[in-house]
């Protein structure tokens, strides 16, 4: 198999050849059709997140076809399409797992961080943590839903019944969840980097009521705000824009330091909360909602070997929507060998 390998944090990925892995108990192997590129991948590759498995194949927004199954997995899974998210494994018994908060499990494993991910032609996944997906949908369009969509959904749930919703950082997650929020009849206010007219134009196309730079004054007071941009200075800014009793949700896994701020910015029973990882329940909810709302991810496809270019384009803000790696030529993406691992 081919894979883009991270050997040291802060260095470019390297294209390598490896023997395709064999699945163990409760695992399936996917022949990867598409893997979206997430800002979390940048944080892993750039060294912002500690202690990744090295060497590592990044990538955790994976769509693929099961071409090999391990023991304790029914052979009927062969040939089906699955999605692989960030959450790859939990203990199932700790306080968090036993109270419906497996996203906080201290023993959790994560795709493309502590386990090899989808910047490759093949990937292993635990069948209990994979989502079966529509076999007729475009895999490139599906891939961003596996993290940008899921984290966006968890953030939107944290916003409660907010009618006027601000979104800071209008990238992959924002452009997906804005569609859900508009479908839910919320007013969405999109905040972008100063002068990013492309992102602002996309926000308006998707039905946002207002779009402007992060320093601009929106046309109405907000009930809640979601921050996807990893910029700590946006936290006090967002708090000044939400009404009393409003909430600001930090949706990223990493953010620069939040600056000191006057207490009056938080006062008035405003709340500041974070979102961490996801649960499998989030996926079950979101994929149903995405189908009902007819969510469509805007994507730019890159061949697998151009992963470093895709990462650079994301890092520099050149992308509108989501970058997606495609390991196979279009004509070869649906070839499906059917067999079981002898394990």
From TrEMBL:
Keywords in UniProt for this one? Metal-binding, Oxidoreductase, Zinc
Does Oxidoreductase show up as a keyword for this record?
yes
Q: Which InterPro entries match?
A: ADH-like_N, ADH_Zn_CS, ADH_Zn_typ-2, GroES-like_sf, NAD(P)-bd_dom_sf
Cofactor(s) required for function per UniProt: Zn(2+)
What GO terms fall under cellular component here?
Answer: cytoplasm
Q: Name one Pfam family in it.
A: ADH_N
EC number(s) stated in the UniProt entry for this protein: 1.1.1.1
**UniProt key word Metal-binding:** yes
Q: Which top-level enzyme class is recorded in the Swiss-Prot or TrEMBL entry? A: oxidoreductase
GO MF annotation, one: alcohol dehydrogenase (NAD+) activity
Q: Which domain of life is it from?
A: Bacteria
Alcohol dehydrogenase-like N-terminal domain: residues covered: 24-132
Q: Which PROSITE patterns match?
A: ADH_ZINC
Gene3D superfamilies referenced in this protein's UniProt entry, alphabetically = Medium-chain alcohol dehydrogenases, catalytic domain, NAD(P)-binding Rossmann-like Domain
Q: Which family does it belong to?
A: Belongs to the zinc-containing alcohol dehydrogenase family.
- Annotated protein name in UniProt: Propanol-preferring alcohol dehydrogenase
Q: Which organism is it from?
A: Aminobacter aminovorans (Chelatobacter heintzii)
